[in-house]
Amino acid sequence: INQRNGQILHRLLITDCPKIVLRLSYQDALMLFRISERYKAGAAELKDHSQTPLGKQLQKESESEPLPQNPNNIAIDIKNAEIKLPYINFTIVDDCADADVPLISFQCYNFKSEFNSMENQYKEIITTLKLELGYYNRSISAYEPIIESYQPTILYRFDQNTMRTKIPIDKELRINSTTGDARLDLTVTAELLKLINETSKTWKSNIN
Question: Tell me: the pLDDT tens digits for 30-47?
Fold first, then answer.
């Protein structure tokens, strides 16, 4: 970290992290949905309360309070950032019945993402990884591939003014294969379609 021209320049490095394993089940998704509905209801109730005389008075008092000022007028600008993760696993699980049954598993190896601020007005994010996507075939009790092992390099370049104005001034996205074979193998089987059909019916019946 160093300071230059009234700015604090940061280089953020996250590396040597342990493997990350995430699990999302039907009950998890249902719980998150109910929490979001309660949050929306609470926000609507709070909005109605703000229209009362007491609510208007509290809002007026909060707006009259001065915001804390930055005496040194120092801006924080992250010039470089890097994230390295050796392994990420994300699995969707069907837990409508008495047992947890895996549905789809996403695996990512050697994830590396770099954020760089260019000399000109552009910033870029370069990400390399190896990914696999598979579904659980219940008839053989094993995973089968949907996306074969694929190693892309993803480049996202954008105008730094976009971050301030939220207007897409200039953006560029490129996805290239890091291996000699740029082919992306996608496998769709009858068992996969059957799994999607049966799972959707089960989840809809539980919601209703």
Answer: 888 889 888 888 777 766
